[in-house]
Amino acid sequence: MKRLIAAALAAGSLVAGSSAAQVALKPETPNLLFWSAEQQARWYPAMETVYQTRPIAAGDRVHALPLSGRTLDPVFTHAGRTWTVDEYMATYRVSGLLVIRDGRVLLEKYGLGRRPQDRWTSFSVAKSVTAILVGAAIQDGRIKSLQTPVTDILPELRGSAYDGVTLRQLLMMSSGVRWSEDYSDPNSDVAKGPTEGVKLAQGQPGLNPVVAYMRTLPRAHAPGTKFNYNTGETDLVGILLARAVGMGLADYASEKIWKPYGMEMEGAWVTDPGGLERGGCCISMTLRDYGRVGQFVLDEGVIDGHPVLPPGWALEATSKQIENGQAGYGYFWWMQPNGAYQATGIFGQSITTFREDRIIIVVNSAWPKSGGPDLRDGRTALINALRQAAIAPAP
User: Fold this and answer.
1) Is the pLDDT of residue 12 over 70?
2) Helix axis angle, 231-245 relative to 125-139, nearest 10°?
């Protein structure tokens, strides 16, 4: 288990979920972890044609992202060679690259045949959006606080290892409940959980398969003491949130962010076998709408002077709350050694924010594998170069 966690941390994030965690529209759909390059380029922009999804409705207004009047074209070194932005995008299969500073676009580029109106899947970037919505639910009074026991909202978990676990501990990946996220092991929780959950939920109307499986797990550590990346638990937070607000996450995201903040296009959110949006995976949105998510958090969740999030929530969620063997972890947000906070998804999805510089860098990719130091380090070199170019005096 220690080896698994170390490898996953080195990759920057773990796999978003097994193929059985979402419902394919066609039974012959291959495991999304092993799609070919051609399948990635075709299906990442069109997940709603592959899996069951729910729409995130947009409104009439669009949050403006005006051009800054200057462009970025840094040259940087990585892996013993010099790179241009275009060379990086071609080599690392980047479909979208966006740099925003002070709400203005400094760079916007597309690859792999993607167009500005095309969406792209988020993988685990969805976790960070789920955390935003938890904050909105607290602001709305639909969740009392982060100290709310999980079993208060999901009483189906009473008598399980989740007794005494708080919502905050779930958001920190520190419930203490045993979980294995090893995709090479068919007996790991992340591999067998979705299928086993469906079996356990049969004959129990209203019981979500994720809840059915998670409540069978034993406790490994005292709650709040140890970080352990757990995609099943992020889906559990999504179920808890939907229960608290009385609607699906797609509808709540539309109500709290998409419509009032001004996303330019409808989003799509993949659902689990129980028909609920996955708190841990797979929202589809345009490149600029990824940038708007980053800007919304950077602006602390305030829309037209109206706070969508509790005071201080955005800062707290995107600051280190627990040690994780790297720079730290917040509430479904990763801290980075370069001082940024980041929403991260496998196969090269990220929203990186430098708070003090008010810079947001979005990268959407179709990496040939889910992650790894080589891929992560290349992206970090690109991001650092873009940041330096953005803060340099204009010519």
Assistant:
1) no
2) 30
The model scores a pTM over 0.85: yes
Which tens digits make up the pLDDT trace of 245-266?
Answer: 999 999 999 999 999 999 999 9
Task: Copy the structure tokens of residue 371.
Answer: 């992650």
Is the dihedral angle over the CA atoms 222, 226, 228, 234 positive or is it negative? Answer: positive
If DSSP states are collapsed to H, E and C, what string results for the chain?
CHHHHHHHHHHCCCCCCCHHHCCECCCCCCCHHHCCHHHHHHHHHHHHHCECEEEECCCCCCCCCCECCCCCCCEEEECCEEEEHHHHHHHCCEEEEEEEECCEEEEEEECCCCCCCCEEECCCHHHHHHHHHHHHHHHCCCCCCCCCEHHHHCHHHCCCCCCCCEHHHHHCCCCCECCCCCCCCCCCHHHHHHHHHHHHHCCCCCCCHHHHHHCCCCECCCCCCCCCCCHHHHHHHHHHHHHHHCCCHHHHHHHHHHHHHHCCCCEEEEECCCCCECCCCCEEEEHHHHHHHHHHHHCCCEECCEECCCCCHHHHHCCCCECCCCCCECCCCEECCCCCEEEEECCCEEEEEECCCCEEEEEEECCCCCCCHHHHHHHHHHHHHHHHHHHCCCC
CATH assignment, 2-391: 3.40.710.10
107-138: per-residue pLDDT in tens?
999 999 999 999 999 999 999 999 999 999 99
3-state secondary structure 74-125: CEEEECCEEEEHHHHHHHCCEEEEEEEECCEEEEEEECCCCCCCCEEECCCH
Query: Cα separations (Å) of 213 from 2, 14, 245, 309?
Result: 23, 20, 23, 31
**Would you kindly state where each structural domain of the chain is located, as residue ranges?**
2-391
How do strand 267-270 and strand 341-345 relate by DSSP bridges? unpaired
In the block, tokens 């109206």 appear at: 306
